């Protein structure tokens, strides 16, 4: 029986209401100092990588930009390239859309980041069929779910062809001059597929880790299959032990059909946390954070997304309204849909009635819960037990404050995890691929 090492990553949030921008301790979401602070904190904690999301269009509710969306977030790969200069070992992961980019151009940008960082680059591959977002692009949002995953799979395959086209250089003697020269390296790329047709040569030499680490976040059946065939890391949303174990087992089982072993894919759910000196204090802190994350405006906005009606006349801290949803209307654009809105509305109404919840209390109940709550010792234990039980390989932590929201975790929880032998005490490799898949990723229990 081997003991699994816990992998940790840090997410710089801002595309939803997880981040509390109204807190006096909150900083800028565009000042480079904010990105540098969080990245350096993660590196001090021995985290595998720093993760940036992407927002290609500001989300709207009832035709207006939602006030809690971040306006002015910089482009991810540009920020990560700058962070390569102020970090040494931390992986640098950026979300870049495979629907609205081209393989040759993006492969060059990612290979460049991998060179600048000496092998620490990662690409979180996402797709979209959202015509609202597509209005910002020539192509538009014309791809349905199946087509966008086929395009993404071909996009990644072609990117790897480009990255792999540079073979290791060989130093040989020129037969005419006798001087030693470099020979080989650049190779031709000829790709003719359903979505892309390229004939040419890649301009960037092979990067330190061969090619960037691939991250994927889809949860549909197509997304899970794409991850099993292609990804190195899954950014999962299954944070509870039961859901985590089911997802973990399902995806790991799919790897065999692609000739892959379970340890070749790391599953890392998003996770939040609230700490305290006692369990009671931690619970109080968690409740306070949830109320900050779900203010009155946000509570009404969530309700309107499901109900399809203007609910602004209702008191968010008053009784849950006795009004039927309008399923013909969708007041929100650019947000992840709730799926079967009729089923969601019925579930929310039943929960509100069962627990006698106000609108805001209900939205807190269904959207604002922290993953790990407790003292540093109990949070470290929860994280470690979650991984050892086969529910995850680690977690991508999403702090509620920027830039200092990760500080307390690194200062108080990481030392306990190290005492348990759950996380690394120092980096043993230089590339992100080594962080994730080195020989010390699993060790015998002490």
UniProtKB/TrEMBL annotation:
The superkingdom of the source organism is Bacteria
Show the PANTHER family listed in the entry.
ALKANESULFONATE MONOOXYGENASE-RELATED, C2H2 FINGER DOMAIN TRANSCRIPTION FACTOR (EUROFUNG)-RELATED
Know the name of this protein? NtaA/DmoA family FMN-dependent monooxygenase
Family the UniProt entry places it in: Belongs to the NtaA/SnaA/DszA monooxygenase family.
Keywords assigned by UniProt?
Flavoprotein, FMN, Monooxygenase, Oxidoreductase
Task: Provide the E.C. number(s) assigned to this enzyme.
Answer: 1.14.-.-
Gene Ontology MF term list:
monooxygenase activity
Tell me the ranges covered by the Luciferase-like domain, including all copies: 23-391
The UniProt entry, under Gene3D superfamilies, shows: Luciferase-like domain
Q: Does the keyword Lipid biosynthesis apply?
A: no
- UniProt xrefs under InterPro entries: Diverse_substr_monoxygenases, Luciferase-like_dom, Luciferase-like_sf, NTA_MOA
Query: Hey, what's the signal peptide range on this chain?
Result: none
Which SUPFAM superfamilies does the record match to this protein?
Bacterial luciferase-like
Could you tell me which species this protein originates from?
Answer: Nonomuraea indica
Q: Which residues form a coiled coil?
A: none
